[in-house]
Amino acid sequence: MNGKTLFAVFSMASFIVVAQPATAQDSGVYVGAALGMSGARQVCTNTTIGGCDDRETSLRLFGGYQMNRNLAVEGGYQYFGTFSQGSRGVVSNAVDVVAVGSWPFSQEFSAYGKVGGYLARTSSAPASEDNTGLVYGLGVEWTLNKAWGVRGEWLRYNNVGGGGLGFNTDIDVLSAAIVWRPR
After folding, report:
1. Domains of the chain, start order
2. pTM as predicted
3. Secondary structure of residue 5 in the 3-state scheme
């Protein structure tokens, strides 16, 4: 067993030991929306004509199911924005599914990590490219009451683009979100 495999097995075993049985308030459906800033550094690589803008305002809509206080499954739609590359615009968005592992510090505050996959579409006339890849990130959540919470998070979408677009880029998203848990 190599070091990475041993670390993964130890991490999962620790997570299972820490996870506690779900109670009524620890499980259920949630939905949310996030607004933030996305950055795609490689969009500006090899741009020789005109300016380049690799930062954009991003929007994310998401929903999930909290299985217990430590584990959730979440799906979402991420609009990265329209980056400019010389005289052409590069529009990118993705849908994703992630596992969310949470570590509550108190009743109100928790840290979490996300890992999963995405399907992205990146377009820049006349080319368009669909691709899949890994998405992962870290965040914190402040639970305001039983129904509402506020999140701050960073997500990375690996290797978006490719093919006829002439570039692949990692897209980083830093955002603030509101979360609603219907009760």
Report:
1. 29-180 (2.40.160.20)
2. 0.80
3. helix
